[in-house]
Amino acid sequence: MKVPMKWLKEYVDINMPAEEYASRMVMTGTAVEGVDKTGEQFDKVVVGYVVSCVDHPNSDHLHICMVDVGEAEPIQIICGAPNVHAGMRVAAALDGAQLPGGKIKKGKMRGEVSMGMLCSGPELDVPAGLYPHIGDEGIIEIFEDVAPGTDVKEVFGLGDDVIDFEILANRPDCLSVWGLARESSAVLEEHFVMPEIAVEETGKGTFDDYAKVEVLDDQTCPRYCARVITDVKIGPSPKWMREYLYGAGVRPINNIVDITNFVMLETGHPMHAFDLSKVKDQTIVVRRARPGEHLTTLDGKEHVLDESMLVIADRENATGLAGIMGGEESEIVDDTASVLFECAAFERANNRVTARKLGIRTESSGRFEKGVCPETAMEALDRACMLVNMLECGNVVPGAFDHYPNPAQPVEIDAEVGRICRRIGVDVPAETMEDILNRLYIDTTLVDGKLLHCEIPAFRQDMETEADVSEEVLRMYGYDHIPSTLMNGVTMAGRRDPRTVFADRVKAALVGMGMFEVLNYSFISPRWIDSLGLDADDPRRSAVTLRNPLGEDTSVMRTSLVPSMLNTVAANLNRGNADGRLFELSKVFVPAEKAGDLPEEKRVLCLSAFGEGVDFYTVKNIVVALLAKFGVTAQIEAAGDGYYHPGRKAVLSVDGNKLAAMGEIHPDVAEKFDIKGRVYVAEVDLDALMPLEKDFYGVKPLPKFPSVSRDIAVVVDEKVGAGTMMDAIRKAAAKTLEDVKLFDIYRGEKLGKDKKSVAYAITLRAPDRTLTDEEINATMDKVLKALKEFGAELRA
Amino acid sequence: MEKMLREIRERVMRNIDEARASSALEQIRVGVLGKKGELTGLLRGMGKLPPEERPKMGQLVNDVRAALEARLEERAKELAEKEKAARLEAEAIDVTLPGPGRSAGSLHPMNIALQKMVEIFVGMGYEVVEGPEVEYDHYNFELLNLPKNHPARDAQDTFYVDDNIVLRTHTSPVQARIMTTRKPPIRVICPGRVYRADEADATHSPVFHQMEGLVIDENITMGDLKGTLDEFARQMYGEGIRTRFRPSFFPFTEPSAEVDLTCANCRGEGCRMCKGTGWIEVLGAGMVNPKVLEMCGIDSRKYSGFAFGMGVERISLLKYNIPNLRYLYENDLRFLTQYR
User: Fold this and answer.
1) Which residues of chain B are within 8 Å of residue A590 when distances are taken between CB atoms?
2) To the nearest whole angstrom, how far is the Cα of B98 from the nearest Cα of chain A?
3) Which residues of B touch A550 (CB under 8 A)?
4) pLDDT band at B320 (very low <50, low <70, confident <90, very high)
5) Cβ contacts (< 8 Å) between A521 and chain B: which residues?
6) Is the CB of A470 less than 8 angstroms away from the CB of B255?
7) Among the four residues A87, A424, A474, A543, which has the most C-beta atoms within 10 Å?
């Protein structure tokens, strides 16, 4: 909330620079976004008096003006505005002036010297309404008798400090000048002086003679106050009011509208002004909307309402959304003659839900949903009427409408001094606490020196418990008094959870293998999942979908890390990073089977490698080495998802449970992710891997007996996996096998088409004896027999 | 004979001195002392001498033999040393040449910071606990004193899955889960991913990480919170880094504080990074609101506690001088490889 310093100073003495004041407020809990000055968008613009104005000889629209800007001689300024004429006071930007559009320099226009520029409202970025006639065509005309050379900021009432407060959700009372002045008075220990509110009821008759109000829903409308003004004269509001409104970021419009905005800013109560003659039957009904009821709001938008929404209506139709936006018909216009002022309190949750449903957010709805105090509504309404008196823009009709069936009950809190001290860790003397609370307008008495009896004022709706009292005490006493201590109590063993420990070990292993960790968003585009070309019934196609995503690109929770990894690879290739080895360890989200349950969150590792010297075996080696680190050996099988190259993909499993998949990305899929060239990807299910980790169960004794080595070479069909045969050898020779290595693969014409020769070196050893030739031969026979199952022939 | 011996001795001695390689020395040895060597021949020819001369001549030959052997051995050593030196010299390589193979990769800078943060708190006796990222509204908001349609929910733009399920907007729901399932004393940290419906820019990301801390025990004070965060600041950013507490508002803590740290860049002098204030806003904290304790089934008259929550990305940005939050989620290798 932006507040001009001058406005605050009307009610509390602030005898310090704006920055210092702002910092005092920040350190006691009222956040400040910044300190600005109004009118900072321009400088070196002064009041000029146009001494003479003649047509430019070389132009059909320019004028040559001699302008008195308070210097010894008038200066020549060329001006193209149609309304410029001799004898006019203008806003003259001098040579070197800084305007929102740029710097003004003297120069020549069509051969004639121009020493500056005569300005329009938009050229100074000041709104129509701040000063009469700013909004008119052409340059600004200054009607007051101001000496040439005077800074125009003085004329417009600019140059004041404006504090931009950031009011937190617990202090809606500070969304007002009075609230902030009251808070400031507590912080600065100065007096807060509110104006005496007295309305001169100069109108005829009483309220009931002019209007009728019916409130049909006490729950959503706890209070409704209204007054009538007759003999209204619409016109500009006075300079001080325009200046304050502009400083607070509100565009001045006309006296009646300005009064409602002024009162909203000053008291925190949103107000509404109806042109009473346009209100049908001069009757206002506050009720819930009928289902399907239509309403066109002030901004020209049509809405379909439901019965949860509170509306302002005439006898038949809804004309406005209560506390959110008024209707078109009863808007204040230049010839409005009688006005009904509304100042109400609407229930905040209902207001919020309605505004959300309809997608409308106004200054008024924002205030109601944060909470507007019903207790002070009448006071605010009277303040508005008092301003009508002051501005002499109408006659206030005697009497008011006030519907307030359930006045707020005063809240009282008894807070223990000792417990407050223990909570905040600071020994604040009881009397100091009492003093602080009283300064905050919380009527407090100290009982027996240890109990604070606090009567909470109506505007402090946030104060409910002793903890709230402790915060009030501490923030005013000063957070800098909090000591730095470490807690006593039982010693606790710190530890990390096993899943994180495991994940960190996986990451460390990958980093050691030259991989770089990446982080991607957890939500992706459903199109990315489509791009993988999964089967129609693949479970990864069903994802947790966000109801309100930032965009389609981030609308579903990941069911696979592969799409974001491919996207990351593509981005890197695009930026000229031709080689890379990346990994991401994150969660995928599997929708729950039962509606209303949380999805399952599974930890998955995805890695990729691309660039020079990288092939299928690069990722395979990384995955196998990673598994080996946890003592896991997996079976490999040429299989896998369709997004991999059909001849370059594999699945690793243990006891039939899939643990990892890997392969070269299918060129069709790569193309969809804008990747040219080959990318290799692997996925590892970490939740499946973690329980497989082997405990360390002691070492085997070192061998005492010699080993023997035998080589075996077989010819086999090309499609038989050399690794698969190796597994078969391991199984066949299991009893005495120490090691098996593949040492040669040969392909040649002599072997025949689609045949290869594969050679293994087999090392055998028994722990308790030297193996005999018979034993060795028997084992090798078993091996050969096992290989023959694959159609292998011993190579001649 | 004696003359011959002298001549052999002098000649061979000269040859030994002139030998330039171990192999030449071996040739010399064989030529003189070998089975068919000159000296061996002389000894063999001793039979022809009169018996009375034999001992004397034998003595003489043996003396020459011993002298030559000694010299040969000495010279062999010399040459071996020389040859080794020459070999070592020849074996010199260009050690500045980069070796083959890959150097290590690196963790993501966010995780480097997070691991350090976790380590600091584990060292202070905290247990690390994680919770779901897709979370019930009940834990994310309601148990934390943020009822439905409460305006304070506006501070956290929330992604909804349905009316009751959200992407958690902070790590605080893990707090609520812990408090509803455990009894004090509680001392935990909860790191993890959180989500806010903010467009990505230099200081915002719709996905980021937080680390929550929660302590509940008897007689926990706000001073303990400050002491804990002071210790964290010191270990994370170095000696001389302090905390500053400013009053603030969070529905789940009372009193609440925004916590600033001494700007690590200027050590509090004031610089561009801290906009001249010497302080950087880093985290939110406070004493757990007794209402929250009660909602979670903990006796608020017996127990008190504090909670804090910090953005890991923010800590990482400050720690590693990263100019723009977007760097963290772009995964550009030119950035990532700088953490090697």
Assistant:
1) none
2) 16
3) 197, 199, 206
4) confident
5) 206-207, 329
6) yes
7) A474
pLDDT band at A135 (very low <50, low <70, confident <90, very high): low
B56 lies within 8 A of chain A by CB: no
Does the CB of B100 have a partner CB in chain A at under 8 Å? no
Q: Hey, which residues does A214 pair with through a beta bridge?
A: A285
Of the candidates A560, A579, A743, A755, the residue with the CA atom closest to the CA atom of residue A669: A560
CA atoms within 13 A on the CB side of A425: 27
Task: Show which of residues 446-465 on chain A sit within 8 Å of chain B, judged by CB atoms.
Answer: 465
Query: Do B313 and B327 contact (CB within 8 A), yes or no?
Result: no
Retrieve residue A20's tokens. Answer: 């210092």
Strand A161-166: give its sheet, edge to edge: A2-4, A161-166, A31-37
Q: Which amino acid would we find at residue A144? A: E
Give the span between the Cα atoms of A256 and A273, in whole angstroms: 8
Alpha-carbon distances, residue A667 vs A582, A607, A644, A649 (angstroms)? 20, 18, 8, 13
Superfamily in which the B109-339 domain is placed by CATH: Bira Bifunctional Protein; Domain 2 (3.30.930.10)
Burial of residue A481, with CB atoms counted within 10 A of its CB: 0-12 exposed, 13-18 middle, 19 or more buried: middle
Distance from CA of A543 to the nearest CA of B (A): 11
Tell me the two tokens of residue A206: 């009483």
Q: What are phi and psi of A376, to 5 degrees?
A: -105, 15
**Which of B:244-283 have CB within 8 Å of A?**
244-249, 251, 254-258
Give chain A's domains with CATH numbers.
2-38+160-188 (3.30.56.10), 45-156 (2.40.50.140), 207-403 (3.50.40.10), 411-477 (3.30.56.10), 498-692 (3.30.930.10), 708-794 (3.30.70.380)
Interface pTM, i.e. ipTM? 0.83
Closest chain B residue by Cα to residue A370: B151
Per-residue pLDDT for B90 more than 80?
A: yes
Q: Residue A349: which of B107, B149, B185 has the nearest Cβ?
A: B149
Residue ranges per structural domain of chain B? 2-90, 109-339
Set of chain B residues whose Cβ sits within 8 Å of the Cβ of A547: 159-162
CA–CA gap between residue A652 and residue A239 (Å, rounded):
80
Torsion, Cα of A360, A365, A366, A371 (10° steps): -150
Please state, rounded to an integer, the average pLDDT across all residues of chain A: 93
Close Cβ partners of B334 (under 8 Å, ≥ 6 residues apart): A575, A577
CA dist A184 and A230 (Å) reads 38
Q: In Å, how far is B92's CA from the nearest CA of chain A? A: 29
Upper half-sphere CA count for residue A596 (Cβ side, 13 Å): 0
- What count of Cα atoms within 13 Å lies in the side-chain half-sphere of residue A301? 10
- Confirm if A29 and A462 have CB atoms less than 8 A apart: no
Whether residue B103 and residue A470 make contact (CB cut-off 8 A), yes or no, is no
Is residue A127 very low, low, confident or very high in pLDDT (cuts 50, 70, 90)?
confident
Q: Is residue A72 less than 8 Å (CB to CB) from chain B? A: no
Which uninterrupted H or E stretch holds A155? helix A152-156
Cα atoms in the Cβ-side hemisphere of radius 13 Å centred on A685 = 18
| A184 min Cα distance to partner chain B (Å) | 15
pLDDT attached to residue A752: 86
Closest CB to B329: pick one of A495, A521, A572: A521
